Task: inverse folding
């Protein structure tokens, strides 16, 4: 009976948890994908992350920054140290300052962070019809649905042949219809189209494939310690389980003379 | 309860099983606590971004004979001194075997002209004087630490005073004739 | 004892004579503290709360070593903890989820006290100290939630500090004082960090008082009757063993959340850096504040809402006198027991309401729930105490069955 009460109370309190997560209400149905990093033992697919990085670099990076990722971090998605050096050196960093006090350009090194495409927010807005392309480092954790949201949003543009007149009519100037974005109007036009780029590993670059790869990459960017977290978790939980079993039998043994 | 205590004089099978359980639980718990302490302590070690910046490149092109520059590396000053031929000669003429921390000058430089050392006194971490020509260079012409009076020579070896060792030579390589990377 | 004492024993005795700390611990949670032998698993939650507090302080101090309390660096320094600091992600997830688990454990502890009448004489001061602990926890949790300087941090800080503007005449001055400026800004973050670091140690102090106050009358028990020495067993090894087992079970749940669902109890919006020019569409406090948040919004008048919200906690101070029944345990109070469960459901409903927009059905539920919350304490508790006929109490813990009434 006690145990039942305990379980009931515990469930009630744990039950609180999801309450606020879905508090927003009226959520759009996301296109749920299977991710390699889902589940108890989930891991990143390095090939996919590299493809995703390629999509980010060749498509997204022209407008979206990735502030919290340094070139050295790319070793974690399977690049060698030398490859990250080469990758970094393709970027230019503005450094302050030389002996004359002037800002000068130098090639990036692995310790540098991926440079922002815009020098400041005003410039970014001015270049994008007043809209600010958000930083993508934490996008996957900053939206309900995480990678599913990113994937669905990128794919959330209507087929031009099937888009209804209502979709067009309500749009403000310079805005695009998106089924997933809040309010259904987004300042970003559709970016991914089949065969937009070429994958070096031979994967077929369909729009959906690219969206999935870049969503996976952005999830890694938001939660780079995911693998270590889950692996540590398995060990910690197994250990705690053994400890709890031992503690249970010890408790029973010690209480034997009281409870009889 | 008093009964239970008296029973313990002769361990029964029951009690030895309890002892085993007790020791097993305690041991597991102790291991758990010990292992979980490590991430806590390790979080105070240098973080990945700190380690990533632990090398610095510098150009010595503008440095004239007899001059010195100071480069910041890992938050510490690295002294680079372009020694004159006379100074090199002086650093090498003395018997290094008798010095407090015996080391030949040849072992302390890669290019004879450039003396490159970490400018942190090996006594208690002050920055010795002697980089600027206007500063006192101590009795041996190299560096002098004002905190507790340690004298370093032209190879930055400790000669007199409380410091136990020579100024440390950092890891560095010459990328070219006048470009070095420290760390 | 006639044999020579070893060197170690002598040193121990020498020290113990001068500072009897080992005996003190033994008297507090050791073999010299007699506890009723019939405590059920709900009595584990006090020790568990103490354990969670230790986790929070340890991880918190280490996080503070890598955190920067400045509006320009706070968000970034938290991300640095998550990405670059060794095990930083673990420290932060343990700390962030530890806060939630601290409240889960303490709320269960409180409801246990409400069910078994642990607030009644002679434990009123023990109960007060418990409420003070909860208040300090709330302040600590609130100031801590501001530190990552995400959108929820910023707007949570704005909304909660603005509560004080409801105070007549001097309200605005108080809010300005809290902010150290004209909006939530760097001075606010700076002082919240200072307070967030300080308050846990105040909490430890009050916890020590709480444990002290516990040891004067001794632990209550599920039957609510006074335990005779015959009904008691030493805390160690009996309850230490039970608490260690309970700790294991707790850790299994806690670690599952920390390692697999570390963001389930957080808000996605807090991964967006604070933007003072744009409020997120749906702001809600952390789940453990939701029932109080619901009570705040139950009424359209600002001052009344604030009074009701603070009143909902402060009313707990007087329930030892609002409850007129002399029987402690709800086990022997047929009507009160039903009301207890209704009250618990009421709190769950209010929690749910706190996360909804205050309109339509949620608003009606919020109002009914708020009414019931106060009705329970102010009317039902005293009245039921007078009219209810409790079941006969057992004469002692060892003989509860004897006194069971004939069916």
Result:
């Amino acid at each position: 009976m006690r145990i039942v009460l305990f379980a009931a109370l515990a469930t009630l309190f744990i039950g609180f948890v999801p309450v606020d997560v879905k508090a927003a209400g009226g959520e759009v149905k996301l296109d749920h994908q299977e991710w390699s990093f889902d589940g108890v033992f989930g891991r990143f697919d390095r090939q996919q992350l590299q493809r995703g990085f390629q999509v980010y670099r060749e498509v997204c990076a022209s407008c979206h920054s990735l502030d919290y990722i340094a070139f050295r971090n790319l070793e974690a998605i399977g690049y060698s140290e030398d490859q990250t050096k080469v990758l970094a050196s393709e970027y230019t960093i503005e450094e302050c300052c030389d002996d004359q006090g002037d800002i000068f350009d130098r090639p990036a090194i692995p310790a540098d962070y991926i440079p922002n495409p815009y020098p400041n927010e005003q410039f970014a807005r001015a270049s994008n019809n007043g809209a600010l392309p958000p930083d993508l480092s934490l996008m996957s954790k900053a939206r309900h649905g995480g990678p599913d949201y990113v994937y669905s949003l990128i794919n959330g543009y209507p087929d031009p042949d099937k888009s209804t007149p209502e979709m067009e009519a309500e749009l403000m100037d310079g805005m695009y219809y998106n089924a997933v974005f809040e309010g259904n109007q987004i300042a970003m036009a559709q970016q991914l189209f089949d065969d937009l780029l070429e994958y070096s590993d031979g994967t077929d670059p369909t729009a959906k494939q690219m969206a999935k790869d870049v969503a996976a990459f952005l999830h890694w960017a938001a939660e780079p310690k995911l693998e270590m977290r889950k692996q540590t978790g398995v060990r910690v939980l197994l250990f705690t389980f053994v400890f709890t079993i031992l503690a249970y039998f010890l408790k029973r043994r010690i209480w034997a003379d009281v409870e009889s | 309860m008093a009964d239970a205590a008296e029973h313990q004089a002769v361990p029964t099978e029951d009690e030895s099983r309890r002892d085993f359980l007790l020791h097993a639980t305690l041991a597991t718990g102790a291991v758990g606590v010990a292992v979980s302490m490590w991430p806590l302590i390790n979080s105070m070690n240098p973080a990945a971004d700190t380690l990533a910046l632990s090398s610095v490149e510098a150009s010595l092109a503008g440095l004239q004979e007899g001059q010195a520059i100071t480069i910041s590396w890992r938050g510490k000053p690295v002294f680079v001194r372009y020694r004159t031929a006379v100074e090199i000669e002086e650093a090498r003429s003395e018997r290094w075997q008798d010095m407090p921390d015996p080391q030949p000058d040849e072992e302390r430089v890669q290019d004879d002209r450039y003396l490159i050392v970490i400018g942190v006194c090996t006594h208690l971490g002050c920055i010795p004087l002697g980089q600027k020509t206007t500063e006192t260079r101590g009795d041996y012409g190299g560096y002098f630490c004002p905190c507790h009076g340690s004298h370093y020579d032209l190879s930055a070896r400790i000669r007199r005073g409380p410091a136990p060792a020579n100024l440390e030579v950092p890891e560095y390589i010459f990328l070219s004739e006048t470009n070095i990377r420290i760390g | 004892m006639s044999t020579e004492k070893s060197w170690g024993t002598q040193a121990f005795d020498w020290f113990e004579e001068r500072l009897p700390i080992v005996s003190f611990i033994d008297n507090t949670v050791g073999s010299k503290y007699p506890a009723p032998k019939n405590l059920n698993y709900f009595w584990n939650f006090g020790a568990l709360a103490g354990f969670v507090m230790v986790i929070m302080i340890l991880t918190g101090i280490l996080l503070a070593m890598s955190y920067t309390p400045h509006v320009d660096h706070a968000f970034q320094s938290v991300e640095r903890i998550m990405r670059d600091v060794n095990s930083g992600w673990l420290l932060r997830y343990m700390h962030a989820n530890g806060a939630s688990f601290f409240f889960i454990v303490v709320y269960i502890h409180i409801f246990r006290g409400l069910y078994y009448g642990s607030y009644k004489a002679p434990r009123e001061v023990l109960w007060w100290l418990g409420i003070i602990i909860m208040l300090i926890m709330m302040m600590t949790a609130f100031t801590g939630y501001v530190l990552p300087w995400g959108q929820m941090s910023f707007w949570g800080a704005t909304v909660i500090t603005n509560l004080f503007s409801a105070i007549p005449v001097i309200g605005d001055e108080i809010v300005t004082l809290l902010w150290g400026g004209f909006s939530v800004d760097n001075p606010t973050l700076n002082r919240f960090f200072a307070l967030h670091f300080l308050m846990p140690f105040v909490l430890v102090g009050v916890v020590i008082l709480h444990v002290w106050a516990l040891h004067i009358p001794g632990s209550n028990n599920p039957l609510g009757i006074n335990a005779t020495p015959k009904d008691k067993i030493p805390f160690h090894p009996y309850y230490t063993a039970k608490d260690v087992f309970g700790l294991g079970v707790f850790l299994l749940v806690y670690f599952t959340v920390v390692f697999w669902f570390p963001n389930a109890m957080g808000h996605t919006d807090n991964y967006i850096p604070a933007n003072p020019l744009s409020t997120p569409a749906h702001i809600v406090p952390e789940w453990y504040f939701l029932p109080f948040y619901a009570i705040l919004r139950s009424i359209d008048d600002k001052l009344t809402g604030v009074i009701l919200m603070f009143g909902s906690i402060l009313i707990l101070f007087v329930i030892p006198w609002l409850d007129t029944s002399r029987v402690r345990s709800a086990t022997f109070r047929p009507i009160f027991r039903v009301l207890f469960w209704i009250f618990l459901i009421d709190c769950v409903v209010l929690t749910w309401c706190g996360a909804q927009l205050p309109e339509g059905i949620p608003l009606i539920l919020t109002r009914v729930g708020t009414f019931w919350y106060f009705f329970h304490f102010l009317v039902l508790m005293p009245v039921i105490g007078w009219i209810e006929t409790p079941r006969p109490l057992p004469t002692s813990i060892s003989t509860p069955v004897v006194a069971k009434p004939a069916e």
Summary: Chain C has a mean pLDDT of 94. Chain C has two domains: 28-277, 284-395. Chain C touches chain A through 56 residues (CB under 8 Å).
